[in-house]
């Protein structure tokens, strides 16, 4: 086979990019219910599995609907900062016989908060506060928790990357939801990241009942304006994978490294510093003494240490990107260009495989409490796949 010249490679890349944009411009978004494989009843610790129907289209995201009744007796309870997203302790996505995502439910909130397109602070706050359709009451009563959360596959609405073909009958797109194993525990042992509700000494969780359903949003290869228009199949060939890891924080005033082990271009690295000093927040962010992103031990890409921009600089940059604050103790290293109007020309994504020891570093300068102090990292990267 003849070797492709540089000019031919450039022409092919240009043709594929044009086909991708044509597909986005001329295809329309449709929804179909996903098939529940083992029922749709919410039960603590159980796993619910949904598969996408076999369709001639490309999945952009999956939407989870929940309708729960949380019954509390005694006194009122307290809501954790990760609720309601941590009603699912784990989110799994399988496709083509492989597991591509395995992470805590909370990261669905951060993914939605960091999507492209917010230029107005008020609109951004409204969106963040309405990711669910109702509030999550924790009164001593039968409380209705009704809402939804999205599982994005497409990295952005303006890019085909991450979209998944839905025509493979042997290995359909599958969503696994693991219900929280401990929905509510007494405040003394409650974890703000893991447990949706904390209970006082005189408070009891009587029951959590309800149902969960799911739908897939996909782009169909036909124009809604003119059905005769059949945009070509897009050239995607990549899955936006998310892998989670946990690093223990054993001592204060010491940088804790979180190694990035996946040798792919990274889009986002989402981190939560969980020092359970209070059930109402992940940690006391005023005690975060420094944050760094290292490409290798001698190359610091971003320095928010006291000798750099300082940890407050990281909060300023996140507000500049997203136009509001993330939950206290949550930091996102975002290399996806669409998240910022300042970088419209492509993705400045570090290819971790080109470096020997890429990592983040986190310094906590406060008093450690409890026994489960940790940094939870969810790395989102593009892996090339044969489709």
Tell me briefly what this model is:
The protein contains 4 helices and 21 strands.
Outline the structure in words.
By secondary structure, this protein is mainly beta. The protein folds into two domains: 20-220, Viral coat protein p3 (Adenovirus Type 2 Hexon, domain 4); 238-384, Jelly Rolls, CATH 2.60.120.20. It has four helices and 21 strands. Strands 2-3-10-6-7-14-21-16-19 form a nine-stranded mixed β-sheet. Strands 1, 4, 8, 9 and 13 form a five-stranded antiparallel β-sheet that branches. A four-stranded antiparallel β-sheet has the order 15-20-17-18, with no helix packed on it. Strand 6 and strand 7 (98-103) form a beta hairpin. The longest helix has 21 residues, at 6-26. It is globular, with a radius of gyration of 22 Å. The protein starts with 5 loop residues before the first helix and ends with a strand. Residues 339-346 have low confidence and may be disordered.
Count up the helices.
4
C-alpha-based Rg, rounded = 22 Å
Strand order of the largest sheet: 2-3-10-6-7-14-21-16-19
The residue-averaged pLDDT reads: 87
Largest sheet: 9 strands, mixed
């Amino acid at each position: 086979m003849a070797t492709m010249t540089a000019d031919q490679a450039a022409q092919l890349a240009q043709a594929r990019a044009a086909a991708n944009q044509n597909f986005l411009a001329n295809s329309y978004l449709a929804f179909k219910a996903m098939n529940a494989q083992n029922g749709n009843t919410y039960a603590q610790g159980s796993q619910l599995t949904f598969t996408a129907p076999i369709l001639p289209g490309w999945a952009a995201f999956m939407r989870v609907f929940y309708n729960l009744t949380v019954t509390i007796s005694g006194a009122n309870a307290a809501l954790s900062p990760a609720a309601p997203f941590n009603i699912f302790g784990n989110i799994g996505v399988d496709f083509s016989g492989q597991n591509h995502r395995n992470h805590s439910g909370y990261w669905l909130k951060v993914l939605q908060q960091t999507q492209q397109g917010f230029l107005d602070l008020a609109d951004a706050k409204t969106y963040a506060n309405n990711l669910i359709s109702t509030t999550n009451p924790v009164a001593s009563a039968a409380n209705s928790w009704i809402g939804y959360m999205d599982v994005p596959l497409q990295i952005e609405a303006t890019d085909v990357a991450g979209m998944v073909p839905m025509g493979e009958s042997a290995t359909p797109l599958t969503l696994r939801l693991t219900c929280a194993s401990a929905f509510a525990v007494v405040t003394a042992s409650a974890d703000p990241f893991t447990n949706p509700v904390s209970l006082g000494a005189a408070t009891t969780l009587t029951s959590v009942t309800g149902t969960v359903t799911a739908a897939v949003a996909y782009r169909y290869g036909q124009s809604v304006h003119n059905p005769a228009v059949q945009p070509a199949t897009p050239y995607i060939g990549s899955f936006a994978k998310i892998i989670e890891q946990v690093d223990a924080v054993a001592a204060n005033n010491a940088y804790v490294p979180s190694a990035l082990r996946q040798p792919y271009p990274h889009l986002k690295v989402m981190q939560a510093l969980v020092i359970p000093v209070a059930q109402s927040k992940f940690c006391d962010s005023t005690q975060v003494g420094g944050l760094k992103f290292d490409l290798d031990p001698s190359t610091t890409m971003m320095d928010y240490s006291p000798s750099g921009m300082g940890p407050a600089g990281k909060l300023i940059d996140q507000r500049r990107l997203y136009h509001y604050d993330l939950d206290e103790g949550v930091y996102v290293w975002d290399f996806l260009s669409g998240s910022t109007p300042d970088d419209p020309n492509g993705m400045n994504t570090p290819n971790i495989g080109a470096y020997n020891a890429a990592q983040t570093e986190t310094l906590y300068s406060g008093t450690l409490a409890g026994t489960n102090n940790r940094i939870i990292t969810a790395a989102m990267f593009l892996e090339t796949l044969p489709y």
